[in-house]
Structure formats: C-alpha cells, structure tokens
Design brief:
Elements (H helix, E strand, L loop, with lengths): L1 H38 L2 H16 L1 H12 L4 H15 L1 H6 E6 L2 E6 L7 E3 L6 H18 L6 H41 L1 H17 L4 H8 L3 H21 L1 H15 L5 H6 L5 H15 L8 H4 L7 H14 L1 H29 L13
Antiparallel strand pairs: 1-2, 2-3
C-alpha cells in the first residue's frame, strides 16, 4: 500500500507540479509575452510576439524538462524528455498525416490533402500528451541511465524512442478523454451556472491550494467561458483569501507570498487544522455563482487555474473579456471579483471565526 501511495504521489503531485513548471515557463509566459507584443508598435512588438510564440511552441519540451527536473533525473534523461514531450504534444497531428523533413523544416502533409500541401508545426500541442510521453521517457530512460559505458548514446536513445512511442500510442486517447470531460464541465456550467459555478469554483480553488497543479488541470480539461471564469474566481478566493486572513500572522511578506505566489504555503497548517480552510472555501462557493450569473466572468484554459499567481489569471481574463466588454468595465470586474470581494469575504469570515475561537492566533502562521 505504501508503494502505491508513493507511486501516486510521484505522478499526481511531483509529476503534475513539474508539468506546471513547464507550462508556466513556456505556454503561460509565452502567452503573456505575446500579449505584451500586441501592445507595442512596429518591429519591436513583432519581435516580442515572436518570442512569445516560440515559448508557446516549446510547451511539450518545457513539460518534459519540468517533470524531469522535479524527479531529479540525470541530465541526459532530462534533455531526452524534452524531445519526447514535443512528440507527445503533437502526437495527434503526427498520427493525422505523413511527416516529412524538407529544407530543415519539420512539416507534414495532412491525410487526404493535395500533394505539396504542407503545414509547419504550430500552436502548443496537447500538454497532457506531452506529460505522458515525457513521463515514459523519464522512467524508462532512468532504468538504463549510468548503466553502460556508452551512456551518452544509450540513455537518450532509450528515452526518446520509448517516450515518443508511448506518447503516440497513449497520449491522443487520454488527451481526447480529458477534452471530452472538460467539454462536459463547460457545458454543465453554461446550462446550470449557479450549481456549476459553485462546484467548479470550490474544486479548482481547493486544487490550487493542494500540492496538485490547478494550471495543468485547467489546461488539460480545456476549461473555457463561464467554467474558466468560475475556476479563476475559486483560485483567487484561496490565494487572496489566505493572504488577507493570515495577515496578522504573516504581515506584508505573507500577503505577497500568498497573494501573487501560492496559497499552497498553507498546506502544513491545513493538515494541522483543516478548519482554517473554511473562509476560502465559503468565499469560493459564494463568489463562483455570482461570477457565472450576475457579473458574468469568463476566461480561457491558460488562466483558469492560475488565480492571482503572477497576475496570470487577470491578464488572461482581460484578454478574453476586454474585446467584448471594453477595457474599463473588464478591469473593474477583475478588481471586484478577483481581489476586493475575495479579500473582504475571506477576512470577514476568518475574523468571525477568530472571535468564536474556531481559529486562533498562529493557526495560519507560515514557516518561512
């Protein structure tokens, strides 16, 4: 039983945490860079947008390196996982057509297309497919790493080939399942915004605080629209909520660390006294349906699981909502639903619980 627990922790905690690192350093930061590029005129803006596009294109490689780094893999396994991650990310496209190498470019002719109709790889692929391929490359590559005198050949050969094959065989099916599951979540929130808003907001907020990657889950499920908006609100309720509720213990440093860093810092305190989580959870349950009905907050998959971490959730919300609602209205909604109300509700609930003796001074003290 202990071995099973350890293995599950390796995949769903360490693995997804590594995946989140890879996502942030490529897809998420690349999207932000692209957004900055659109605001700048001339060639400068074009170059910056290009840098962002390259970062997004490297998502599969970033996930491979992120997971390998989290597993403390050898350098050869880590670099090989980047290649396998790229194959896994584009597995569905690879299987949909015939790939060719022409003039140094990797291109493919889609099945049934006219001769010479080539398409250069684009987009960021499938993050979950990248994770699966990279994970296989890491585990299988680690079996041979350092075991032979020609390690520099054997390790990358085994890692890249096995990881890529697993990515092609397994990745597309699992990615399709996650997309299907995400479409159900998106549809149900649209059809029942009150109940759906509560469920998505509470669950995604809790996932963000737990040592699991809410960003990876939001992107893998492809949360969009109201569902992504509710997820962002739940994540903000946890980050901003814990930041203000624990201010008397952690002061400005804790406010910043949790408010734009991560509420995951409170996990040790939650394990000791789970009741301290109630203000953030209640706030998520209250604000989620308000965001899906009265205020109508939307977002995309990239920002859905980020909350206020690096202000990514707010940047993505602005990118999605501003074209329809205008910059001023969007910024006001973001400020109210992502910062002001989460702070006010969480602080009010936590202070009431302190007066009742349910939460005591020191319960949310960070050990940093």
């Amino acid at each position: 039983m202990e071995k099973v627990k350890k293995y599950l922790n390796r995949i769903f905690i360490d693995g997804l945490s590594g995946m989140a690192l890879g996502l942030f350093a490529t897809l998420i930061i690349g999207t932000i860079i692209e957004q900055v590029g659109t605001l700048l005129p001339g060639m400068e803006g074009s170059y910056i947008k290009f840098f962002g596009s390259v970062a997004k294109y490297m998502t599969g490689a970033g996930i491979g390196v992120g997971v390998a780094g989290k597993f403390k893999s050898s350098p050869l396994v880590t670099v090989s996982a980047a290649t396998a991650g790229m194959v896994g990310a584009y597995a569905s496209k690879i299987l949909a057509g015939s790939f060719l190498v022409s003039a140094g470019e990797l291109v493919w002719a889609e099945s049934g297309s006219a001769a010479g109709a080539m398409v250069v790889l684009s987009g960021f692929g499938e993050p979950l497919g990248a994770f699966i391929a990279a994970y296989a490359a890491i585990e299988l590559g680690s079996l041979v790493s350092g075991k032979t005198k020609v390690d520099i050949i054997v390790t990358p050969l085994v890692s890249i080939l096995t990881g890529s094959v697993v990515g092609l065989l397994v990745g597309p099916s699992i990615s399709r399942f996650m997309t299907w599951l995400g479409s159900i979540v998106n549809y149900n929130v649209e059809q029942n915004p009150v109940l759906g808003g509560i469920i998505v907001s509470v669950l995604m907020g809790m996932i963000l605080t737990l040592p699991i990657s809410s960003a990876a889950i939001g992107i893998s499920l492809n949360l969009t629209g109201l569902a992504a908006g509710a997820a962002t609100i739940g994540c903000c309720a946890n980050m901003v909520g814990f930041a203000v509720a624990s201010y008397r213990e952690n002061k400005v440093g804790g406010l910043i660390a949790q408010g734009i860093g991560t509420s995951m810092l409170q996990v040790p305190n939650i394990v000791k006294k789970p009741v301290i989580w109630l203000p953030a959870i209640i706030t998520s349950a209250v604000l989620g349906p308000i965001g899906t009905t009265l205020i109508v907050m939307t977002n995309n998959a990239v920002g859905s699981g980020m909350g206020t971490a690096g202000l990514v959730g707010q940047i993505m919300t602005y990118q999605v909502m501003a074209p329809q609602e205008g910059a001023v209205i969007t910024l006001v909604k973001i400020a109210v639903m992502h910062v002001v109300l989460p702070a006010a509700l969480s602080l009010g609930i936590s202070e009431l619980m302190r007066k009742k003796g349910i939460i005591q001074d020191g319960d949310m003290k960070l050990d940093v």
